[in-house]
Design goal:
Number of helices: 7
Order of helices and strands: HHHHHHH
Distance between the termini: 77 Å
Helix content: over 70%
Radius of gyration: 22 Å
Oligomer: single chain
Number of strands: 0
């Protein structure tokens, strides 16, 4: 019972820390008003990396040993642990999926940032088709909030590119 109690305390600390990570990941991001679409990809890459690290830690032999000891002791903390483990897996899958879909836009970010307005406009139909494909097929990225944020960033990039073009000319 003593060992079980100590291990339960350790797991409760982990649960608290993991909950904090999940809460922070769901909070609104504060971004500059003129930020471009590559920042969206970078955000999801960072989120994927952090959740994958967390999953690696959860799957480590040390953590597995502690969880199996608590399972043998029929600990009540395991219900919370399993729920959080599932939530972390969902968050990691979401980030991985969003990175995969946003990478399909990556080829447009260069032309969007460096081209003349005329050249940039040649890329817009393909870009919008790709955005539409993401909206129609992504299980996580197809919300109005995510699409609005992405389209706003694409628009910001187009405006910034046009401003730079006008200032050079």
């Amino acid at each position: 019972p003593e060992v079980t109690e100590k291990l339960e305390k350790v797991v409760m600390i982990w649960i608290k820390q993991i909950r904090q990570v999940l809460v922070e990941s769901e909070q609104m991001r504060r971004e500059a008003d003129d930020i471009g679409p590559s920042a969206e990809l970078e955000h999801w890459k960072a989120r994927m990396s952090s959740f994958n690290s967390l999953l690696d830690e959860i799957k480590s032999s040390r953590v597995k040993k502690i969880i199996s000891i608590l399972q043998a002791a029929r600990s009540k903390t395991l219900k919370q642990w399993k729920e959080l483990d599932g939530n972390i897996t969902i968050a990691a899958n979401e980030a991985k999926d969003n990175v995969r879909y946003l990478y399909t836009l990556d080829k447009f970010f260069g032309p969007l940032a460096k081209a003349s307005p005329v050249t940039m406009m040649e890329h817009v139909p393909s870009l919008m088709n790709t955005v539409c494909m993401i909206y129609c097929t992504s299980p996580y990225y197809n919300t109005s909030e995510r699409m609005t944020s992405l389209l706003l960033k694409i628009t910001n990039q187009m405006i910034n590119t046009c401003k730079m073009y006008l200032c050079e000319g």
